[in-house]
Amino acid sequence: MTLSGIHVPLITPFAADGEIAFDALEDLARAALDDGASGLVALGTTAEVATLAEEERRAVIEICGRVCRERGATLTVGAGSADTRSTAEALRALKGEADAALVTVPAFVRPSEAGVLAHFTALAEQTPVPLVVYNIPYRTGQSVGAATLRRLGELPMVAGVKHAVGGVDLDTVALLADPPEGFAVLAGDDPFLSALLALGASGGILASAHLRTGEFAELFRAWRAGEVEHARALGHRLSLMSAAMFAEPNPTVLKGVLHAQGRIPTADVRLPLVPASRASVEAALRML
Ligand SMILES: O=C(O)C1=N[C@H](C(=O)O)C[C@H](O)C1
């Protein structure tokens, strides 16, 4: 499979009683695809996945899958833990449910790059769906350089990487200069989307694309079409808006904004997250 374009990792909206607001989730899913996203990501970090019970996770996958099937869009589902065996088991459960799985580099364990390669090699042998490696060292504590990413990209069931290293470093430039055939490099740090697209990234998985989704899709199209002046100006505007969404831990500011827009019933998050301050939400709203 070839992954490209803008993919929206959906938040999990909560009602006042703390339960998932499924209607609001479905509305967000439909709006993202209607406004130009190529796909949805269910159960990403933006979904507060660590706080969702098993039956809640299944219900989220069901809704996102139904909306994606209706629209012919790609559904990627977050699956992964610091344990190879249980990650393989979670992947097997995605057979027929997802087009791809977003699998985080094992967090906290810090297994070395050789361990990361061994983890994904074992998963690639067992998974029924293509894998997207989620490279996010500030959350996992494990960096993965361009040489290892290239080797991961050569594994038969690895379709791409969600690349979120907090900037445009030398490994990012080296990987994008020479990616393995058919390997999608997707921007995973919202403020750096435009810079990575300029370097040849295939798209992005971006929480802030809940907002101004059509402009994110236009940014992707414009870089692809080589409309540099237009893409650069649009990219600058969207990057600054994205930065405002990440002034406090994701997705707290985003939820504050979506609630202020009347798109979700509350801005509630589950502990250990706490709601964003009013000042951060108001600052983000001013950037829209
Ligand atoms: O859930 C995701 O996928 C994303 N998570 C990132 C994070 O919270 O660190 C941000 C990115 O926009 C998408």
TrEMBL record:
It is found in: Cytoplasm. CDD domains: DHDPS (cd00950). Its main location: cytoplasm. It holds the Pfam family DHDPS. Pyruvate binds at residues 46, 205. One of its GO terms (molecular function) is 4-hydroxy-tetrahydrodipicolinate synthase activity. The keyword Lyase applies. Signal peptide: none annotated. SMART domains: DHDPS. The record marks 45 as: Part of a proton relay during catalysis. Keywords: Amino-acid biosynthesis, Cytoplasm, Diaminopimelate biosynthesis, Lyase, Lysine biosynthesis, Schiff base. GO terms for biological process: diaminopimelate biosynthetic process; lysine biosynthetic process via diaminopimelate. Pathway: Amino-acid biosynthesis; L-lysine biosynthesis via DAP pathway; (S)-tetrahydrodipicolinate from L-aspartate: step 3/4. The keyword Repeat does not apply. It catalyses: L-aspartate 4-semialdehyde + pyruvate = (2S,4S)-4-hydroxy-2,3,4,5-tetrahydrodipicolinate + H2O + H(+). InterPro entries: Aldolase_TIM, DapA, DapA-like, Schiff_base-form_aldolases_AS. Catalyzes the condensation of (S)-aspartate-beta-semialdehyde [(S)-ASA] and pyruvate to 4-hydroxy-tetrahydrodipicolinate (HTPA). PANTHER family: 4-HYDROXY-2-OXOGLUTARATE ALDOLASE, MITOCHONDRIAL, DIHYDRODIPICOLINATE SYNTHASE. Homotetramer; dimer of dimers. Belongs to the DapA family. This is 4-hydroxy-tetrahydrodipicolinate synthase. The lineage of its organism: Bacteria, Bacillati, Actinomycetota, Actinomycetes, Streptosporangiales.
